[in-house]
Amino acid sequence: MTQRTRNFLLLAPAGAWFLLMLVVPLSVVLIFSFGERGAAGGYVPAFTFDQYANLPARWAAFRNTLVLAPVGTLSALLIAYPLAYFLAVRVSAKWKMLLLVLVIVPFWTSILIRSYAWIFLLGGRGIPALIEFIGFPAIRLINTPFSVLVGIIYGYLPLMVFPIFVSLDRLDKRLLEASSDLGAKPWRTFLQITLPLSIPGIATGCMLVFILLMGEYLIPAILGGGKVFFVGNALVDLFLQSRNWAFGSAVAVTLIVVMLATVTVYMRFMARLSANRDDVSLI
Q1: Residue 17: inside a domain, yes or no?
Q2: Which of 14, 72, 246, 280 is the right S-S partner for 35, CB 3.0 to 4.6 Å?
Q3: How does 164-202 read in b/e, with b if 16+ C-beta sit within 10 Å?
Q4: How far, in Å, CA of 85 to CA of 83, rounded?
């Protein structure tokens, strides 16, 4: 058996799975996006760009997604990095595993239940009532972009923490000691050694959170109260409620294109940062 045949046999199962579970469904969605809605809903074969021309009708969903997904990713990063740094660098091996388990404990409960818990916390009898009791004016938190952002950060924080933790945990501590011995201040050590060497974890965490957020449905539906729509909510409405499969497919294809463009730009940027890791100095 030649090497080429062996490679083909090894790659064939994964290739067939990729073709069947990704390429074929996406091809169907792409074909549907050029069709029309039937009289009773569904899909009627055609070749028209009318569905794409009607995309501005769902601009609010795209706007919310393109704003809250990056903001949610960045917010999760700003919270997750100090936590991951503390767990990887400052905590002793004795307590590290226990604290890591505590980070993933929320994943043991359904995201649906956790989101409903935030309805109470952000509702009129939760945090707003406490703020009013203290003496500040009453504010509305639930069914707002803020409540959706809180749910996003809470729900996806562990996915951001673990990749960053792995990068920091594998960091050669001798580099930090050498930096200190050479007289570098802690902030300079962090900026020139710790942060550059943790870029792969940052890139992985941001990618995991951002991609999942672009298709998020549950958190906006529960904490947004029908007032803060994501593209995922629009797709559910188009496919299941309006039964406008053609327009829903056009929205889905557009979302995929936006995600591919965004992810490509982001990965090139992170690759450029990673390429400079070896140039780290203590100047």
Answers
A1: no
A2: 246
A3: bbbbbeebeeebbeebeeeebeeeebbebbbbbbbbbbb
A4: 5
Distance CA 248, CA 58 (A): 10
List the CATH number of the domain containing 213. 1.10.3720.10
51: in domain: no
Q: Judging by beta carbons within 10 Å of its beta carbon (0-12, 13-18, 19+), is residue 20 exposed, middle or buried?
A: exposed
Residue 40 lies in a domain: no
Give pLDDT tens digits for 14-66. 999 989 998 999 999 999 999 999 888 899 999 999 999 999 999 999 999 99
Is 116 within a domain? Answer: yes
Q: For residue range 255-281, what is the model confidence (pLDDT) as tens digits? A: 999 999 988 888 888 777 766 655 544
| CA distance linking residue 86 with residue 82, whole number of Å | 6
SS (H, E, C) 57-107: HHHHHHHHHHHHHHHHHHHHHHHHHHHHHHHHHHCCHHHHHHHHHHHHHHH
